[in-house]
Amino acid sequence: MAKELILFDVEHKIATLTLNRPHVLNALNLEMWEMLDACFSELEAMGDEVRALILTGAGEKAFCAGLDLSPDNPIVWEMLSTANYTRRDQIANEINRLRDTFNVLAELPFPTIAALNGLTFGAGLEMAMCCDLRLAVEGARFCLPEVAVGVIPDMGGTQRLPRLVGLAKAKEMILTGLPVDTAEALRIGLVNQVVSREYLPEVTRSVATRIASMSPIAVRASKRALNQSQTLPLSEGFAFENQMALEAILSEDLAEGIRAFREKRPPAFRGC
Prior knowledge:
The protein contains eleven helices and ten strands. By secondary structure, the protein is an alpha/beta fold. It has two domains: 3-212, 2-enoyl-CoA Hydratase, Chain A, domain 1; 214-262, no CATH class. The model has no long low-confidence stretch (mean pLDDT 92).
């Protein structure tokens, strides 16, 4: 695997994935997409070896400019430039396959943090929206410009953006294809924090470190319950919350947390 396109590191139970094509604003080609799919699947299988993920981009201009539209990218060549109704099922399957990569990211059991170090457009924004938290550098811009080239945000953008910012604002962003700046992104809830460039890595790492220090069972159960809150009726949400609460209450982590509180020391959670 050509690791230079995706930098993958795990240290102190915090994984970091860096999109590494800064010369093209970290735009996604097919090889990069397949590497992301492999990395996300590997992370999914790592259990308590990873308690948080940081996803970021190389360079100072962009987190990810979206899909690489150059003609040598097979995604464009095979799906977009030669699209026709005789290939309808094939194209639908390809869209699903690509979207599934982002869905794996969204369903990772531990918290994920996108450190948005610059321009975040198209599929780049759709990928960032799969993360649980988004921290953005001052001066970053965010956009789903797909309608300008004759397609829609089909990597989950039409479904995830309204859940984050509300339907009216999502329609404005998607139907006009216009970007929003960091102040607006913060106001509408698209990002959680705006950080100066020099401090973005430090602040992101600090958030990930704090999350990694918590009970992994409680954190994972909380993430699952929060995700379900977006789709379940309230009564069913309460029932699911009870299931997640029982997983935490019956764990050794809870006993350790109480012992640590009484002994006035940091807990040593083992995730069991």
